[in-house]
Amino acid sequence: MTARVIAAHTDPMSVSGHKGSGSPSGPGPEPHRAASIRDVARAAGVSYQTVSRVINDRPNVREETRRRVEDAIEALGFRRNPTAFALASGVTRTVTVLTSNTTLYGYAATLQGLEEAARAAGYSLGVKLLTPEDDLDRTLTSAVADGGGLVVIGFDRLGATALDHVPADVPCAAVVEAPPPGRTPPRPAVWADDREAARAATAHLLDLGHRTVHYLAIPSSVGTRHSEGPRAQGWRSALETAGVTPPEPHGGKGWDARAGYDQAQALAHDPAVTAVLCGNDDLALGVLRALHHAGRSVPGDVSVIGFDDAPHSGFVTPSLTTVRMDFQGLGRDAFALLRDRLEHAPRPPAPTFAGTALIVRESSGPPPA
Amino acid sequence: MTARVIAAHTDPMSVSGHKGSGSPSGPGPEPHRAASIRDVARAAGVSYQTVSRVINDRPNVREETRRRVEDAIEALGFRRNPTAFALASGVTRTVTVLTSNTTLYGYAATLQGLEEAARAAGYSLGVKLLTPEDDLDRTLTSAVADGGGLVVIGFDRLGATALDHVPADVPCAAVVEAPPPGRTPPRPAVWADDREAARAATAHLLDLGHRTVHYLAIPSSVGTRHSEGPRAQGWRSALETAGVTPPEPHGGKGWDARAGYDQAQALAHDPAVTAVLCGNDDLALGVLRALHHAGRSVPGDVSVIGFDDAPHSGFVTPSLTTVRMDFQGLGRDAFALLRDRLEHAPRPPAPTFAGTALIVRESSGPPPA
DNA sequence: CTGAAAGCGCTTACAG
DNA sequence: CTGAAAGCGCTTACAG
């Protein structure tokens, strides 16, 4: 019933504190001031500007001089101080991602794609959590002050709002739930074709013979009242195409299995319901559970389809028919967009095509006879 | 089947580039050089050192002067440049977390706890992913160069190895799988009592009447050959206490449901097996699935217990008996440890007691008669 | 209580 | 091809 904390105070001197030639305390390597550009210059017998040229791969350095400097760098274990670099050059190889969540599968996977791309490009990655209680402007200002660029994950309302508040002159890319409205998008952004994916999932159920399909929504980043998210739109459009009047959508109040369970009560107990499309897999798990408690079988009595293809969705029973998304690809693409913006790329980034795909498993089938 | 990328190049000027009084391009606010300490000083009619005093809450500033400076700060929207602050002061309010994973529940939740604590303390949080392919020393050097402190998530071998390689003079705290061996721990660290939790879970199964309990392991951060992780130890110890010879543990080759499914084949098809403790909930889901495919019911034929209590574990069928962990608490505590180290706290941090708890649900019950 | 100086580690012009 | 100067925005002593 306990978590333990143990503290070891082995080194009373802060490495970040100003150096003094303090006597080495205790065993181990003595606190070692990092070599600076001047130390390297001295060791190589050149001026420190020349060192700067070498570490920045600038031309106009004699081959032999360059070699001597490189040897000194190696010998002293020199690494350029990123803080000083940032201050002097005005360039920060940093990307800060703003997100309201880091544990839900879609968010976590997007974050991972972002991280991989950032690391590959030599960027550091920062994370700032968006919370309703927190002062949004404060969070944004502090993110901007950190330098570098911003990537906002705009899957939900909080993220979308944050995106709207990013000052126009701050380099920023976004991964969003749906294409921004209007012809001149305010920001570089990436998104998956959720609308089409939802349409295909709904059509799959209709093709199976269901007379209609109910929808349990995730909270959307776009208006809750007058408009709905792309997944809901795709569902609605598939029904309309088939000449079916869409029933009232459910949900919209949460993302997790508990929210799915709670919000599916009405659906689960309505014998007319034979097919439910869910805004994500967690919600679908909750629906499965509600159906179980209502004594209805899946897919015998009711078919259920999820969204996102979380790693465990193929291993629950019944395994979940769902839409596979490429969140990591979205993250990578968003980083690429930001980087182009940051580094003044001459050409606009090439469109990439990461896929969505309907994965049919056990939870969907024909309606009861 | 597509993800779309759209690029908007609304602002050709980089905000991070050196300012020039560039003509404002297009609509929107013109690129605005952030106010500096000198701008504030000018506006307030004082020297910039006085501004420095005010923003650092230093004494020895006349009340009226302070007020004038604060007004100027407000009027100009001044925010101290963190990069310059870091360079001049040698203090970086940044924590970089090193982790091999960001999507598995335990990692993601720990990260979230870290983020919350960091934000509350006014620290920025960076994330660096640890990969087997990557050069560990390079990753570490770059993390250290970013300044501030490190928190490494040492749940697995990669994390534990990284922790071992952190130079002794770098401020660092860790969240680890098990208490560090030896009496003088090398680093401030936090951990939960996994051993005791696994013991309790195993005892629960024994109390239910099972003759023995099998174990499906997660990969451990500690030696795979001569030693085993704390969860395995707790399981083993509970069996031994009950006078039962522990069977050979399974698993150790992966963390997710697929790994659980694959590694549970032998257990699932062995009629003598009536109880399985799993290293985490994902593994348990895979075991449930393997059992289902083998035609064995849970908990009728076999009881299954997981670890971690992931958010959906209560909503699968059968719902999972599992051990609830306080990963967020672990993250918060690790940050507190690091902060104390960074800010030279006089007192060692007080031990905190975050809980683990056995949550009994549907997947465990008495053995078949 | 307040100001003038020097410096953090680097870069970008500007000389030679 | 290489060096001396000025500056990034702030802080920490040091004067008054």
TrEMBL record, chains A, B:
Region (Disordered): 1-33
Entry keyword set: DNA-binding, Transcription, Transcription regulation
Pfam families given in the database record: LacI (PF00356), Peripla_BP_3 (PF13377)
Keyword Transport belongs to the record: no
Residue ranges occupied by any HTH lacI-type domain in the UniProt entry: 35-89
InterPro entries linked to this entry: HTH_LacI (IPR000843), LacI/GalR-like_sensor (IPR046335), Lambda_DNA-bd_dom_sf (IPR010982), Peripla_BP_I (IPR028082)
Name of this chain's protein: LacI family transcriptional regulator
Originating organism: Streptomyces asoensis
Source lineage: Bacteria, Bacillati, Actinomycetota, Actinomycetes, Kitasatosporales
